[in-house]
Amino acid sequence: xxxxxxHLAFPVTDxxxxxxxxVSLLGAGTGRxxxxxxxxNLYGHQITAHLVDEMDKSPTNPVDGKNIPARHxxxxxxxxxxxxxxxxxxxxxxxxxxxxxxxxxxxxxEQATMFLQDPSxxxxxxxxxxxxxDIFDPEYKD
Length: 142
Known about the structure:
By secondary structure, the chain is α+β, with helices and mostly antiparallel strands.
């Protein structure tokens, strides 16, 4: 399945902290930029950090007994790429909102997942499905 790149814009309170986090830690490339925004290439998708003066708080939703940020974004990776990213984040001493773990192990929808925050408080989820066909499985029920 070929999926076109998505675009997502999100607020940050410090562009240089955002650049360091997305480029140095997550491995994103940079694209166009202006004094108040930067385009990043995150696994082939365009995400744009927009400088704001203040961040709003994000509500959470209980999932698997964890408080998951309702407002979050991320990328679905191949499992080896997810493992590499999880290892890099752990080696960096990243504080996770949800530590890397496997949901629904041995079941439909099995996925590796982890949540973290960027320096401006935006929530990110990175996941990898055991079977990519489960990404949009209409039979899935949590």
